[in-house]
Amino acid sequence: MTMTSTTGRPAPVDIEAGLIHVRRPADDTHLADLPLHRPADVAASGARLRAAQPEWERIGVRGRVRWLSRYRRWIVDNTDRLIALGAEEGGRVRNEPMLETTLLIELIDHYTRTAADLLKPKRIRVRSPLVLGKKLTEYRHPHPLVGVIGAWNFPMLLTIGDALPALFAGAAVLIKPSEVTPLAVRELVRGWQRIGAPAVLEAAYGGGDIGAAVVDEADFVQFTGSVATGRRVLERAAATITPVSLELGGKDPCLVLADANLERAANCAVYGGFANNGQVCMGFERVYVEDSVYDRFVELVVAKVAALRSGADDHSDIGALTFAPQLDTVTAHVREALDSGARALTGGHPLDRPGSWYAPTVLVDVDHTMTIMREETFGPVLPIVRVADAQEAIRLANDTEFGLSATVFTGDIDKAEQVAEQLEVGAVNINDFLINMTCVQASQGGWKRSGIGSRGSDHGLLKFTRTKVVARSRIPVGDSEINWFPYTSGRRRAFRSAIRLVHGRGLSRFGR
Ligand code: NDP
Predict the structure, then answer these.
(1) How far, in Å, CA of 263 to CA of 269, rounded?
(2) pLDDT tens across 13-38, in order?
(3) Annotated catalytic, 439?
(4) Which phi and psi (to 5°) does residue 494 adopt?
(5) What's the confidence (pLDDT) of residue 510?
(6) Contacts of 63 (CB under 8 A, 6+ apart)
(7) CA 306 / ligand 1 centre spacing (Å)
(8) Which residue among 96, 100, 179, 247 is the active-site one?
(9) Is residue 313 scored above 60 in pLDDT?
(10) Residue 366 in contact with residue 333, Cβ under 8 Å?
(11) What is the pTM of this model?
(12) Which SS3 state, helix, strand or coil, does residue 349 take?
């Protein structure tokens, strides 16, 4: 059965033919066919990866770093091809997939520098009389098989980008890219094979059933996608108590205070709202502007948005919507807002051309009763709200179930820090956009329903490991310990004296 979207276009999974039809969102033409995997194929992949993983773990961090450095060279040598593929299958301007390949390299460089230290055994300093004379060491062991399920908006970064720290940690990785954009990921997996690296990286291609099979197969699940699917992944993983890390949707706010550099704020709001055609989990989906600068800010933004060039070539700014049904969501959100009293100062309609195109849109007179202010739109739409002051901006910014990141514009850094303190999000960029995501040394994770866990930084690697503590005695042990059975008054006194000696202060250490 070939499924069709509400726009009438064929959806990519063709179960009857056993194929994924990948289309070019820019003109809705056929790009490539991929064999569709079945759940049994996922189980077979899992078995192969599990067989290869122990040797991958055994070669240690230095051995793994050698392979990942070779992989880095392969990515650099193939960057142009990967970018071209990412642009074509996503209907995106090449600047967007270029960000992905750049971050893949940065991730390899970062964990090449830090993995050995993060993974080395840690001596645990002991003080407690309960463990006097013991030596404790904490070891890190990888989850043997990590399943990585990714979304279509940054397909390389959201799959390979998470696979890399897992590989550094010593895990084998099974990737499930979105069926909408599997081609660049397939090339990256082939690249791993081409350099002759150990067979610890595979991909399974298909829709939700394949994603579910990966959840069943994996020892740890790294998921990026919508809140609705994230919930399904969490429920499924609960059956086997499989740990998960979830990077989910957002509705990120941008706050513009009266003392902001308005030219920078407007440029950044337009970039933050329309980069990757608004298909960025941390893209601006709501802008709150202080009353006294509202009119000027809106004027600046509208002029800049009206100047954006829609197209998928190198002379364009924003491309097509990658996932065709997304056009229905964007259209419905804007239509409902307009019907409820909002005004589109530019755009407000799909573009009349083949493919999935929507005109870059600025909306005003919006409020929080409208879907466009509450649910993720994930398209080229920037709703702007007038607010009385910073406190109202903060209140409205926090009035959401999401909590990925936020931006605040102000000329007063102390004020910006105070606003940042009050925002319920995983990151705040001051007078900027997406800095925490483009800095792999920083953690990136969501509050509230935007996720569990984070990527980047130390945790981005350590989450793929389990700890094991090994305890032994520093001194030869006798037949028993003073806190073991039998509980005699003599042993109790000796134990009490030891506790007092360690925890007491001054003379009380000696019972005085
Ligand atoms: P979806 O939740 O629809 O899909 C995400 C992935 O899950 C896809 O590979 C999908 O497969 C797969 N999937 C579908 N059903 C299941 C299932 N039952 N079990 C396991 N896997 C399943 O998200 P989108 O692809 O539409 O991506 C957009 C969303 O991703 C937005 O909400 C966006 O905010 C979020 N996102 C979050 C980021 C973050 O870091 N927080 C970064 C980027 C995006 P298939 O596509 O083949 O159906």
Answers:
(1) 10
(2) 888 889 999 999 999 999 999 999 99
(3) no
(4) -65, -40
(5) 78
(6) none
(7) 31
(8) 247
(9) yes
(10) no
(11) 0.96
(12) coil
- H, E, C per residue of 354-393: CCCCECCEEEECCCCCCHHHHCCCCCCEEEEEEECCHHHH
Q: Which atom of ligand 1 is nearest to the CA of 232?
A: 18
96: part of which helix (H) or strand (E)? helix 95-119
By mean pLDDT, which of 10-19, 98-107, 300-309, 344-353 is the weakest? 10-19
Beta carbon of 75 within 6 Å of any ligand 1 atom? no
Separation of alpha carbons 458 and 441, rounded Å: 8
Alpha-carbon gap, residue 256 to 239, rounded angstroms: 45
Would the CB of 320 count as within 6 Å of ligand 1?
no
The band of 305, judged by pLDDT with boundaries at 50, 70 and 90, is very high
H-run or E-run covering 498 = helix 489-503
Ligand 1 in reach of 226 Cβ (< 6 A): yes
Distances (CA, A) of 266 to 122, 380, 437: 48, 15, 21
Long-range pairs for 361-369: beta carbons < 8 A, 24 or more residues apart:
361/305, 361/334, 362/298, 362/301, 362/302, 362/305, 363/334, 363/337, 363/338, 364/298, 365/341, 366/337, 366/342, 368/396, 368/399, 369/340
Catalytic annotation, pick one of 96, 268, 281, 285: 281
Burial 435-454 (b: 16+ CB within 10 A, else e): ebbebbeebbbbebbbbbbb
Cβ–Cβ under 8 Å, residues 37 and 25 = no
60 lines ligand 1 (CB under 6 A): no
Contact yes or no for 372/329 (Cβ under 8 A) = no
Query: Rounded CA gap, 99 and 113, in Å?
Result: 21
pLDDT in tens, 80-129: 999 999 999 999 999 999 999 999 999 999 999 999 999 999 999 988 88
Token pair in block for residue 57: 């773990």
Q: Which atom of ligand 1 is nearest to the CA of 250?
A: 34
By DSSP bridging, strand 451-452 and strand 252-256 are unpaired
Is residue 281 annotated as part of the catalytic site, yes or no? yes
What are the CA-CA distances from residue 474 to residues 122, 134, 136, 468, 477 (Å)? Answer: 16, 5, 10, 19, 9
Residue nearest (by alpha carbon) to ligand 1 atom 17: 208
Which atom belonging to ligand 1 lies closest to the Cα atom of 228? 2
